[in-house]
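One-letter codes give the sequence; the integers encode the fold. A sample entry reads:
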Amino acid sequence: MIKAILFDFWGTLVEQGLHSPLKELHAIFCPRTSFSEFVIKAEKAMMTKTYPGLKEMFLCLENEFNFPLSEEFRDNLIGFWNKNWMLAHPYPETEIILKELKETYTLALISNTDSISIERVMEKFSLKQFFYKTFLSYNLGLIKSEPDFLKTVLKELKLDATEVLVVGDSLQSDIYPAKKMGIKAILIDRKNKRDVQPKINSLQELPSLIKKIEEEIGDK
């Protein structure tokens, strides 16, 4: 029986203001490294601690890749990063679906994120009200692909892996880590480009798919 749903934030519930800001950073800092390798290092540098401001966060990223930037270039990146969260907004169906699911399930938020962007977006759109707990990389000191991240979530929620469902838009950060833990996971693939099941193209499809999954669990 599913008791809790763990939602990713960026790309799942909220659309970023700019297209793939991490890909932009990849092109600047480490273009010869694969994007998946870059993301792990970058997210660990930027998103596993709380920084006083974005300048300190980018300095840490520069140190991670031994790639010092000029002050002007760094300021431009800070403006770029700020623009991303300032233009971010929930997908049209986000609030309706969260409100509906909250009536039946415990909802929790899981995210690889810096401490500044997510807090401002959640406050701006009053999103905290939907979640029993939030598990954010900068608070846990872990990113989602690390096994201890989901172990911590399960421990805090006092639930077994079979009682939890993950919903996210990333195979590497959401779907694969969940499956390794024995947690059911649903990919949200709005552009319908990935051949993975189970998946949805919109959050509107989620309630019916969850019911189907629960029926399959009940038949076993």
In short: The longest strand covers residues 106-111. The chain has two domains: 4-16+88-219, 21-86.
